[in-house]
Specification:
Layout lengths: L5 H18 L29 H10 L5 H12 L6 E2 L1 H17 L7 H12 L7 E2 H9 L2 H6 L15 E4 L21 E4 L5 E2 L29 E4 L18 E4 L5 E3 L25 E12 L9 E11 L8 E5 L7 H12 L5 E3 L5 H7 L7 E4 L1 H5 L1 H7 L7 E3 L7 H5 L11 H9 L1 E5 L3 E7 L13 E2 L2 E5 H15 L7 H18 L9 E5 L2 E2 L9 E5 L32 H4 L11 E6 L2 H8 L7 E6 L2 E5 L3 E5 L2 E5 L2 E7 L1 H6 L3 H4 L3 E5 L9
């Protein structure tokens, strides 16, 4: 019971209070609706402080293994509150409310979803009696993919070969169902579209033997290297056939998922010619490059105390990857929560452009296990948001001998690494095909990385976990970390308030304003000591509220704290010193992301941060350039690494050159193991 949150217990208590009041009521809910059109949705937020046990029980039950039909029957009985074998208006609306919450959690657009769900439930009521029987519920539910997904009875995020990944979609132009060949009608979400192959159907046609989705691997070793098209029935929208060059009428043609060619049904000749994967062939890992060796069975023993020796059988496939020669397959990691709904949209787009086995949702699975499959691939790249750089430890541990270059797609706020590598400050919805082509024209540059170690003064004291052990972008302590920590805490407490980039920026501005008034990090120099390569760094006569260690020339979403540098009197002045603290020499020192040094900058407060961000001030206070630093704090202080803040009790912080980088930097073939992608100046379309 100690593990159950107090808030959850209070909500359960309020639930039983409301339940007793309901049972004492003299006006029971009528079972007959009269007409399906009389269903009126209840306010799902009427009891915002109450946990409904029906919902909790349903959520728990769908996690267990079982057939969708069994779960549908269980859900029916769960919501049949009066036990009369019929779902009346209030019970139907409770189901709709749950599906609305599930859709919002899954990242669906719910603005027009309630009328669609209402029509969906009305369609299940075949005899239009206003009530839904168990037979109608089972028959209608089994033929309705969105209902199964939103009730949690069917998981469509893990793709099996040939299985479609459906999503509700509104079509801006006339579109036809590929099963019954009639037009998709209605307002709002009109039908289902497969994320991977763009196959479109009515909701009720999804289970009526549609064509399988495009394959993602081959099952026979003899098929390896045989580049055959995967033709999918599609509305080619008067596109010219690439064989006879005549226009293709509605639903009279097919398109290849990999090379994107479109042909008449009669012009599709199996195996002639070979598929070349089209304009994105350099990035695509086609199915004939992935061979399913076999299914293996692994026995694991459960650790539960009640059944300590009960074996648990797990089945999984082993894949061998043999890329097409002279190509560079791209492995994409996406955090769907980044940038509001941007991450979810980008995830879907990549699943349609590449092989779905190249695109991974970081909220479902980490990169470590996935990289094992690519251990034998000698030439591939990794693309993701900030997680792409963080997972480099997983890359090193799981891809022996080869560590691929990494590109960063800027979603959400911040994006400092993407800015300094000229990928821009934020993804604005540009065509991903164009960005993929820009990767081909990019150059590879090395990146310094730094080991980060925290030794608390009192090991017994409870403290927040340190987010990372490697610094890629920056580390800071003081005023900016305090603002970031308050923002992070508020986002964890109220995630619904942080669903857009503009809201996030406004919230950051609010916290920065309050921090400038409160000055919680005033007299920072009295609370810490700094040593650079063993030499004390003098901070006398400086009124600082923050210290930043910079590995790249961008922080706080585009600020350059180091600023522009003067030309040195001599080209080699100060460049060979292990540590530079002389103010005059520091004026001539420029930042580089691969010079095996980092820069130390002081900040006077939140106001100065704003001045630098708006270009009203050139830079902060240059304190040092060094390759090693030790910071000793005397009280609890806010800190952050690469935008991830935490509150740290008194401790000793040590930043040193990463051991792996220091050992393998000198040889050319090893430099590529610590690299990120950078657009060449000629091909770059983003602002610096």
């Amino acid at each position: 019971m100690e593990d159950i949150p107090a808030d959850f217990c209070q909500r359960l208590f309020r639930y039983f209070q409301h339940k007793e009041q309901d049972e004492s009521s003299t006006n029971p809910v009528p079972a007959h609706l009269g007409s399906c059109n009389t269903i009126k949705p209840c306010n799902i937020f009427a009891f915002s402080d109450v946990v409904f046990l029906q919902d909790v029980s349903c959520y728990f039950s769908v996690l267990e293994e079982g057939q969708p039909q069994e779960k549908l029957e269980f859900t029916f009985k769960l919501y049949d509150k009066d036990g009369n074998g019929l779902l009346d208006s209030s019970e139907v609306d409770r189901i709709i409310s749950q599906m609305m919450r599930a859709a919002d959690y899954l990242g669906w657009d719910v603005t027009e979803l309630r009328p669609v769900l209402k029509d969906m439930m009305c369609a299940i009521d075949v005899d239009a009696s206003g009530t839904v029987t168990l037979e109608e519920w089972l028959k209608g539910g089994m033929n309705n993919i969105p209902l199964l997904v939103l009730l949690g009875l069917k998981v469509n995020t893990k793709k099996r070969d040939g299985q479609h990944i459906w999503r509700l979609k509104h079509f801006n132009k006339p579109t036809y169902c590929c099963v019954c060949e009639s037009m998709l009608l209605g307002i709002g979400k009109q039908g289902l579209c497969c994320t991977c192959c763009k196959y479109t159907v009515h909701n009720q046609c999804a289970n009526k033997n549609p064509e399988p989705c495009a394959r993602t691997f081959v099952k026979s070793k003899q098929e390896i290297g045989k580049a055959t098209h995967d033709w999918i029935k599609a509305d080619c929208n008067s596109t010219k056939c690439q064989v006879c060059f005549k226009k293709i009428k509605t639903l009279a043609g097919k398109w290849c998922v990999w090379c994107q060619e479109m042909r008449h049904d009669d012009c599709v000749i199996p195996g002639v010619p070979k598929c070349d994967c089209g304009p994105l062939k350099d990035h695509i890992l086609p199915p004939w490059a992935i061979y399913s060796v076999s299914k293996v069975t692994v026995n694991e023993y459960m650790s539960a105390s009640t059944e300590p020796n009960r074996p648990k059988t797990i089945q999984s496939r082993i894949y061998l990857i043999s890329p097409v020669p002279d190509t560079h397959p791209l492995l994409v990691f996406v955090n769907p929560k980044s940038g509001g709904n941007q991450g979810q949209r980008v995830l879907r787009k990549f699943q349609g452009l590449l092989n779905p086995r190249q695109v991974y949702n970081l909220s479902n699975v980490g990169p470590a296990a996935l990289l094992q499959e690519y251990a034998s691939v000698q030439d591939f790249g990794v693309w993701g948001r900030r997680h792409a750089l963080i997972c480099r430890e997983d890359i090193e541990a799981n891809v022996s001998g080869v560590c691929p270059p990494v590109a960063v797609l800027p979603l959400g706020t911040g994006n400092d690494m993407a800015r300094c590598l000229r990928w821009g400050g934020g993804y604005e919805g540009a065509e991903l095909t164009e960005i993929l082509k820009e990767i081909e024209a990019s150059e590879v540059i090395p990146l310094d990385r730094w080991s980060f170690q925290v030794i608390p003064n009192n090991p017994q004291e409870v403290e927040d976990p340190v987010p990372y052990e490697i610094i890629n972008n920056y580390f800071s302590i003081g005023v900016d970390a305090s603002i970031a920590h308050r923002f992070h805490s508020m986002r964890e407490k109220h995630p619904q308030r942080f669903n857009s980039r503009m809201k996030n920026k406004l919230m950051y501005l609010e916290f920065a304003t309050s921090e400038s008034i409160s000055a919680s990090c005033k007299k920072l120099i009295d609370c810490l000591e700094i040593e650079c390569c063993g030499s004390p760094l003098k901070l006398n006569n400086r009124s600082l509220e923050g210290i930043a260690i910079l590995n790249i020339p961008s922080i706080h979403g585009g600020s350059n704290l180091w600023g522009e540098s003067k030309k040195p009197d001599s080209p080699s002045e100060g460049r060979r010193s292990e540590v530079i603290t002389d103010p005059e020499i520091l004026k001539t020192v420029t930042q580089e992301i691969s010079d095996k040094r980092f820069e130390v900058v002081g900040l006077e407060g939140a106001i100065e941060m704003g001045q630098i961000y708006t270009r009203m001030k050139n830079a902060g206070h240059r304190l040092a350039q060094t390759s090693q630093i030790t910071i000793r704090t005397k009280k609890a202080m806010p800190m952050q690494i690469d935008g991830e803040p935490w509150m740290q009790p008194p401790c000793t912080v040590s930043v040193t050159q990463n051991k792996i980088w220091g050992l393998i930097y000198q040889t050319l073939c090893r430099i590529l193991t610590k690299t990120v992608l950078k657009l060449s100046k000629k091909k770059c379309t983003y602002a610096k």
